[in-house]
Write a structure and sequence with these properties.
The complex is a heterodimer of chains A (50) and B (406). By secondary structure, chain A is mainly alpha-helical. Chain A is 44% helix and 0% strand. Chain A is built from 2 helices and no strands. Chain B has a domain at 3-55: 434 Repressor (Amino-terminal Domain). Chain B starts with a helix and ends with a helix. Classes of the chains: A mainly alpha (50), B mainly alpha (406).
């Protein structure tokens, strides 16, 4: 049942990406250089354990 | 005091036979029973035996009181995070360490020694002490068993095993019906939740710890707890409260001359500004933090990496490159794999984004998945890869990463 739901979801996502978007296929660097503006990688420094 | 064992220890140390020691005081079999604690001797006999060994009974009783008071002091100083005093108390205990096995504080002493080693960050020695204590576990009283498990949880936090530490602390808390008057215990509960990125819980326990520390005027731990609250308010996007915590911290850390804490506070303030999308302010605080860190340690590395990321997101690619190059070198020196591969990724991204995405998929993501921490990092990278594959028209691959986000 779970697998079936995941499969259905994947199919619906595939359909979404192939129909709703006009996908532009390009191999140039500028097209694939995705901005990291919203990155969250920097971390806080936790206080000492002691 | 376990006088039987004490008498045996000094008699053997001084090379006296049982017959010599007991002569005119008691029979040899009687002394033998006293030494093996199989017979309760009266105070008069003990006193005479000790006198012959040149040890005063009163003096020994005073020593036992001294052990008790030093242990209580050591525990208190650890709870108040008073580094110099902790050392002072520990050294005094070391001076009379040979007497401790004969006192009733033998297990408490070994447990506090474990706590002391953890506090000092002597992980290997603490591990050895833990093994020693584990063998004695069945002899512990309920209180000693509680302490052993608690200290073990703190030890696991040092080792980065937060999930296990959290389970132990949770069990201990439940056994006590969720009631505790220990600010330190609540602080550790909050810290472990914070490390697991469970901010709601971290704030809950942090607030409880703060109240107790404030009642005790435990100023250093108040600063540490405020930092925890600031971090977790930031993580929960409660920015006003977070800002208040950090501003309060900056004022008080300067006042209390907690110079070691200041760069960490500035870093976390930078992190908050970054999350609030105040890039200029974030850079200001990160750089302030870096300038106060003379030692190129792990904290320096984290701050430098954050600056690199900030420059990268501001499209100051040359500055970002310089930062990541330094991060790369330093993380190799300090053997910090995570920041080495992340710096590698960014350096690749600056040179060739296509190669960078391949590296992301082959190295960065598997590493982060294996480490099983900082789920936000992983989500961020999954999203990036899904976007990348979508742009390339490789929808199946895009879906693979979108599914991972779900």
């Amino acid at each position: 049942m779970k697998k079936f739901v995941v499969l259905l979801f994947s199919i619906s996502l595939v359909a979404l990406f192939t129909t709703a978007k006009d996908v532009k296929v390009s191999t140039s660097n500028s097209d694939v250089a995705i901005s990291t503006e919203d990155n969250v990688l920097n971390h806080p420094i936790q206080p000492p354990i002691g | 005091m376990e006088y039987g064992a004490l008498i045996k220890f000094y008699r053997t140390q001084r090379g006296i036979t049982q017959a010599e020691l007991s002569k005119g005081i008691c029979s040899v079999p009687h002394l033998s029973k006293i030494e093996n604690n199989s017979k309760e001797a009266n105070e008069g006999t003990i006193s005479l035996l000790l006198k012959r060994l040149n040890i005063g009974l009163e003096e020994m009783e005073e020593q036992e009181e001294e052990i008790k008071s030093l242990l209580k002091g050591l525990d208190e100083k650890i709870n108040f995070y008073l580094r110099n005093e902790i050392e002072e108390y520990y050294q005094k205990l070391m001076e009379i360490e040979h007497l401790i096995p004969f006192s009733k504080y033998i297990y408490i002493y070994e447990l506090y020694k474990f706590r002391y080693l953890i506090f000092k960050g002597q992980v290997d020695e603490a591990d050895g002490q833990r093994a020693l204590l584990y063998k004695q576990k069945k002899n512990f009283s309920q209180h000693e068993d509680h302490l052993f498990r608690y200290y073990n949880a703190i030890f696991l936090m040092w080792k980065g095993q937060y999930q296990n530490a959290d389970e132990i602390l949770d069990a201990l808390h439940t056994e006590n019906n969720k009631e505790t008057t220990s600010g330190e215990f609540l602080y550790h509960r909050s810290l472990v939740k914070s490390s697991l990125e469970l901010s709601g819980h971290a704030i809950h326990f942090g607030k409880m710890a703060l109240q107790i520390f404030m009642n005790q005027h435990n100023f250093i731990r108040i600063l540490h707890t405020l930092m925890l609250l600031g971090i977790n308010y930031t993580h929960s996007n409660i920015y006003e409260e977070a800002q208040e915590c950090f501003q309060h911290l900056i004022r008080n850390a300067e006042l209390l001359r907690k110079d070691k804490l200041l760069p960490q506070i500035y870093h976390n303030m930078g992190h908050l500004q970054f999350k609030m999308k105040n890039a200029k302010e974030a850079l200001f605080y990160y750089e302030k933090s870096l300038a106060l860190q003379p030692n190129k340690n792990q904290h320096y590395l984290v701050t430098l990496y954050a600056i690199g990321e900030l420059h990268h997101s501001l499209k100051s690619f040359e500055k970002a490159k310089l930062c990541f190059q330094e991060v790369n070198l330093l993380s190799k020196e300090l053997s910090v794999k995570k920041y080495r591969i992340l710096a590698d990724y960014y350096l690749l991204h600056l040179a060739s984004p296509v190669k960078a995405f391949k590296y992301l998929e082959a190295k960065v993501i598997p590493y982060l998945e294996e480490e099983n921490e900082h789920s936000e990092d992983l989500t961020h990278f999954y999203k990036m890869l899904a976007d990348y594959y979508t742009q390339k028209g490789l929808v199946i691959d895009a879906v693979k990463y979108l599914n991972k986000i779900i």
